[in-house]
């Protein structure tokens, strides 16, 4: 594995010039707000001020939707609401009534059953204008009434069922509970518990369905399929330049607990491949750079390598791709540039001869060093000196259906010139962003801009239809004094916000219909990596298996009680609902403050 600092040159053309500096003009990230973290792929954050006085409201919930938690099916988008023009709203009261309605059909607050269509009319389903109009009204009313639990609860339901924004929906559902703890509405609590349960299973069931679809159709139509190496949108790089990280068997446990379905390794270690047998985790293995010369001149050697490092482990181990080399083009060894395409062809031909080419993708990831220009994104272009090697590689990848893999690091761009790059722009935080005059597109984060620069470069050489996948991206949690921005706070912010962004399964401004897919660098801190301090501190997990910082994952060795967070959240909600239900049946006035006390104490002790 090549060093991030040396193998991924940062171009001055990448730099985002901002008059705001690294902090001014942007809203600080709400790290100090209470956070309801969890151990799944949705992060729950509450931002309600505790000083908001409680109010009592009757929630428009159907008790039948607030039963015991049960496994939910993947969310379905209801029919789109009819857009309401401002001039059609007679007064504020009418708007309030519309928002409070929250959909018919008996949907439970914060995530019960599917509600009604939020209105009738001839608007086409899926109209973004209608959804955004309704969203704007909710935001307006909540801004005017931030402590109104009814608005908060119904907005959470709208976010979950209509917009499909689970992260924000969970936030507002939690705010609805905290907005009026003295009321202890049983339906809100039960629905919140169900929301946690359903949301926990949604991603897992969706990805399982996706995997079964691939397995089902790969058998009868294997001779026409193009190999696919990525399920979902989130993966991670499993580097092992270390003498103190957990064994592969424990890594499997760690990844399954985190529901991570995709990994990349930088070799084809047989012990790792044996450990992952039966795990259901998809693996891209690596053909290290030092093997390229040998493989490029001998088809037989390529076949031998595949027979030794791939064939014995499938289908038990889900080897879905082979990365031939890493960051070759633009690197310091020009001889490797010349042998890359022959090596790639020989590996593919070896797979084809062994009848594996339709199941295992052949790729080769690149660094940002392959670009001559990347700012603004529409100006993205490959270096002229690399085109004699890049063009034939892209031509072959286009023939076999391989995406363009790029190692994109906003961290390295910021580190190269922190005085001219807005840190918030690099960390997905609030910032003015940049405007691309050629495409008339606005970018509020560097990650998306880097991907779209890749699309622009591909277009310029005739490969505009090729997909782009981020093979590496991450942020160092420690660094030398010269490595600006390398600290745990920034690393947590980048990786947490990146995870949220990927889980939304949305595209970039230039390719909005192509969901972004990325492998995070890296799984562990690697203590034996050479180079600056940052090289040894990219891991989401420490060497002992505990989390480096909290972005919603659970470590092998709990650094806190984080391993019980999701179940604890469900327990708090269900238990609190039961207390309120019992006290209301007995007309016991104790319910007025009991819920708030129980919820607050449990929330502190389980750190939700």
Automatic annotation (TrEMBL):
<feature type="compositionally biased region" description="Basic and acidic residues">
    <location>
        <begin position="48"/>
        <end position="68"/>
    </location>
</feature>
<dbReference type="GO" id="GO:0042973">
    <property type="term" value="F:glucan endo-1,3-beta-D-glucosidase activity"/>
</dbReference>
<dbReference type="InterPro" id="IPR011990">
    <property type="entry name" value="TPR-like_helical_dom_sf"/>
</dbReference>
<dbReference type="Pfam" id="PF00332">
    <property type="entry name" value="Glyco_hydro_17"/>
</dbReference>
<feature type="region of interest" description="Disordered">
    <location>
        <begin position="1"/>
        <end position="84"/>
    </location>
</feature>
<feature type="compositionally biased region" description="Polar residues">
    <location>
        <begin position="1"/>
        <end position="17"/>
    </location>
</feature>
<keyword id="KW-0378">Hydrolase</keyword>
<keyword id="KW-0732">Signal</keyword>
<comment type="similarity">
    <text>Belongs to the glycosyl hydrolase 17 family.</text>
</comment>
<dbReference type="InterPro" id="IPR017853">
    <property type="entry name" value="GH"/>
</dbReference>
<keyword id="KW-0326">Glycosidase</keyword>
<dbReference type="InterPro" id="IPR000490">
    <property type="entry name" value="Glyco_hydro_17"/>
</dbReference>
<feature type="compositionally biased region" description="Low complexity">
    <location>
        <begin position="18"/>
        <end position="27"/>
    </location>
</feature>
<dbReference type="InterPro" id="IPR044965">
    <property type="entry name" value="Glyco_hydro_17_plant"/>
</dbReference>
<protein>
    <recommendedName>
        <fullName>glucan endo-1,3-beta-D-glucosidase</fullName>
        <ecNumber>3.2.1.39</ecNumber>
    </recommendedName>
</protein>
């Amino acid at each position: 594995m090549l060093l991030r600092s040396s193998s991924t040159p940062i171009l001055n053309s990448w730099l985002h010039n901002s008059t705001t500096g690294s902090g001014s003009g942007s809203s600080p990230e709400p790290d100090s707000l209470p956070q309801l973290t969890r151990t799944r792929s949705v992060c729950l954050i509450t931002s309600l001020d505790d000083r908001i006085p409680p109010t009592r409201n009757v929630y428009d919930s159907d008790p039948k939707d607030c039963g015991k938690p049960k496994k939910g099916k993947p969310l379905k988008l209801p029919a789109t609401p009819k857009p309401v023009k401002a001039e059609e709203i007679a007064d504020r009261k009418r708007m309030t009534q519309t928002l409070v309605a929250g959909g018919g059909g008996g949907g439970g607050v914060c995530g019960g059953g599917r509600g009604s269509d939020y209105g009738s009319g001839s608007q086409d389903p899926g109209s973004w204008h209608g959804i955004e109009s309704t969203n704007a009204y909710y935001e307006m009313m909540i801004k005017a009434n931030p402590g109104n639990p009814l608005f908060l609860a119904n907005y959470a339901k709208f976010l979950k069922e209509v917009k499909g924004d689970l992260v924000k929906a969970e936030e507002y559902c939690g705010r609805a509970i905290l907005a009026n703890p003295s009321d202890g509405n049983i339906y809100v609590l039960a629905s919140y518990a169900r929301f946690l349960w359903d949301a926990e299973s949604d991603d897992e069931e969706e990805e399982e369905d996706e995997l079964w679809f691939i397995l089902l159709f790969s058998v009868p139509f294997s001779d026409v399929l193009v190999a696919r190496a990525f399920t979902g949108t989130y993966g991670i790089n499993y580097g092992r330049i270390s003498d103190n990280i957990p064994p592969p068997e424990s890594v499997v446990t760690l990844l399954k607990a985190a529901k991570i379905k995709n990994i990349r390794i930088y070799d084809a270690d047989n012990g790792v491949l044996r450990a992952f047998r039966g795990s259901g985790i998809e693996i891209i293995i690596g053909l290290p750079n030092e093997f390229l010369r040998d493989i490029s001149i001998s088809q037989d050697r390529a076949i031998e390598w595949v027979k030794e490092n791939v064939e014995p482990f499938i289908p038990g181990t889900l080897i879905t791709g082979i990365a031939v080399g890493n960051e070759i083009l633009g690197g310091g060894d020009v001889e490797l540039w010349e042998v890359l395409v022959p090596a790639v062809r020989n590996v593919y031909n070896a797979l084809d001869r062994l009848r594996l080419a339709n199941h295992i993708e052949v790729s080769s990831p690149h660094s940002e060093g392959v670009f001559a220009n990347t700012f603004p994104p529409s100006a993205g272009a490959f270096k002229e000196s690399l085109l004699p090697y890049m063009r034939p590689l892209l031509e072959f990848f286009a023939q076999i259906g391989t995406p363009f893999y790029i190692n994109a690091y906003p961290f390295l761009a910021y580190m190269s010139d922190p005085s001219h790059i807005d840190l918030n722009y690099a960390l997905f935080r609030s910032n003015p962003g940049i405007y691309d005059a050629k495409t008339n597109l606005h970018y509020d984060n560097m990650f998306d801009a880097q991907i779209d620069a890749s699309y622009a470069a591909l277009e310029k050489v005739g490969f505009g239809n090729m997909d782009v996948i981020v093979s590496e991206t991450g942020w160092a949690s420690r660094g030398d004094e010269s490595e600006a921005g390398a600290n745990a706070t920034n690393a947590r912010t980048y990786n947490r916000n990146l995870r949220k962004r990927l889980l939304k399964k949305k595209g970039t401004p230039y390719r909005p219909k192509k969901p972004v897919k990325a492998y995070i660098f890296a799984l562990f801190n690697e203590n034996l990596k050479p180079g600056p301090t940052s090289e040894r501190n990219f891991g989401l997990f420490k060497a002992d298996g505990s989390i480096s910082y909290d972005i919603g994952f659970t470590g092998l060795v709990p650094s806190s009680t984080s391993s019980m967070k999701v179940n604890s959240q469900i327990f708090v909600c269900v238990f609190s609902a039961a207390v309120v239900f019992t006290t209301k049946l007995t007309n016991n006035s104790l319910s007025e403050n009991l819920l708030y006390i129980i919820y607050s104490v449990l929330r502190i002790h389980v750190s939700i």
